[in-house]
Amino acid sequence: MDTAVPSRKLRLATTSLAGCFGCHMSFLDIDERLLELVERVDFDRSPLTDIKTCGPCDIGLIEGGVCNAENIHVLRDFRRHCKVLIAIGACAVNGGLPAQRNHLDLGLCLQEVYLTAPGNVGRQIPNDPELPLPLDKVHPIHEVVRIDYFIPGCPPAGDAIWKFLTDLLEGRTPRLGHPLLHFD
Amino acid sequence: MNDVSQPPSLLLDGLPVPFRDGQTIMDAAMAAEIFIPHLCHHPEFKPQGSCKLCTVKANGRYVSACTMPARDGMEVENNSPDLNDKRRTMLQMLFVEGNHFCPSCEKSGDCMLQALAYELEMLSPHFEQFYPDRPVDASHPDVLLDFNRCILCELCVRASRDVDGKNVFALSGRGITKHLIVNAESGRLADTNFSLADQAAHVCPVGVILEKRRGFAVPIGSRRYDVDPIGMQVERLATRSATEEEA
Questions:
Q1: So what's the pLDDT on residue B245?
Q2: Cα of A52 to nearest chain B Cα, Å
Q3: Domain co-membership, B127 together with B52
């Protein structure tokens, strides 16, 4: 008889900060293995559940870097609630596409987009108090909180995400070798 | 004295590797198809040992394999956790110093920096990003220079100066301000006699010197290091030629 303590279901939360949800789409690319995954984990906050606040979790998956004040808030909240926090995708790992604005002046960017670009005559830079303030620079998430694991890729392949998660769930050190480890 | 029938050899990770007089540790390893990670080394150009990725331990001391002459009986440590940890750290420093945004880079999949990061399982940049401001030079009709990705290996400098005889490129500045420049009064590549026929056009291990209008001739996913890891391509690396590099 198996005397091992029956393993409880783990809780998994996911979110996208300054990302494009491409990593979440890639996460869905694990296809029917998603059914196998929900046998072993319960989803907490995630676009998949539409739960808006993060409770105590075992694993947190963060897509995207930080580009505004709300991103910082959500990221810190995830760090507080998740035992293991994973950066998923190029933007979370090194800033990615949103960070390509880092060598430009933020004020000039906003002016260009909302005021001076063709078709924007007479509009205004959005200033509703409910809008999170953009940060001067976009940062990868490890520059704000401690990150336990990184899954690079733009996006990482569904197979890479699956390999990583199953390694983690089964207590192995997650490892992506060739050809799953990709930066593009 | 060496017996003529017994060529001199060094011990590379415990394995006897023969070499000829005048060969470096890198030459000997490459000839034996043993991979030593490297970026600034190219078999056709004079080694300079600047990238430090090929750092090995020879008789207990850290040396650059590409510049260190092989010696009979030398004990060389190469593929060890200690050295690979240090190499990974050096890669991380190279990544954060520049703007290495692989998803938008034409060289992705053919880039040695990226391939080594895969080989050494570099999963994160670890350090804070510098995000330097490095404008591109698109002035030349056939070649784009994207300085964001320069790792200062000086292969283009060496090729243009020593082989092409044109001296188009140079490094300027010191320390953290060191950067690649174009030797023209305007600083623009269009104002030099640089051409696609130059060897310097085909030696960049990363995505700085890019031939225009052919960036995605080979799709992402089917490229050199997408197919096989760089560590499995020692024979090609040892015999590669800047004249056929992009053929």
A1: 54
A2: 28
A3: no
- The distance of A150 to chain B (nearest Cα, Å) reads 6
Long-range contacts of B7-13 (CB under 8 A, 24+ apart): B8/B70, B8/B71, B8/B72, B8/B73, B9/B72, B9/B73, B10/B70, B10/B71, B10/B72, B10/B73, B10/B74, B10/B75, B10/B76, B11/B73, B11/B74, B11/B75, B11/B76, B12/B76, B12/B78, B13/B76, B13/B77, B13/B78, B13/B79, B13/B80
Q: How many domains does the structure of chain A reveal?
A: 1
Structural domain boundaries, residue A40: 10-100+134-169
Q: Do B143 and B169 touch, CB atoms closer than 8 A?
A: no
- Does B221 lie in the same domain as B151? yes
- Residue B127 sits at the chain A interface (C-beta within 8 Å): no
Do B115 and B220 share a domain, yes or no?
yes
Residue A29 belongs to a domain with what CATH number?
Answer: 3.40.50.700
Task: DSSP for A110-152, please give it.
Answer: HHIIIIISTT-TT------TTSPPEEEEEE-GGGTS--SEEE-
Count up the domains in chain B and report the number: 2
Whether A154 sits inside 8 A of B102 (CB atoms) is yes
3-class secondary structure, B56? strand
Domain that residue B181 falls in: 105-225
DSSP code at position B105 = -
The pLDDT tens digits of the residues spanning B221-244 come to 999 999 999 999 999 999 999 886
Confidence band for B186, pLDDT divided at 50, 70 and 90? very high
Residues in chain A where the model's pLDDT stays below 70: 1-6, 121-122
Q: Any CB–CB contact under 8 A between B114 and chain A?
A: yes
Which residue, B28, B45, B79, sits at the end of a domain? B79
Q: Is A102 helix (H, G, I), strand (E, B) or coil?
A: coil
ipTM given for this complex: 0.93
Cβ distance B118 to A181 less than 8 Å, yes or no, reads yes
Same domain, B137 and B211: yes
* pTM across the whole model: 0.95
pLDDT at B38: 98
CB of B8 within 8 Å of any CB in chain A? Answer: no
Predicted local distance difference test score (pLDDT) of residue B247:
40
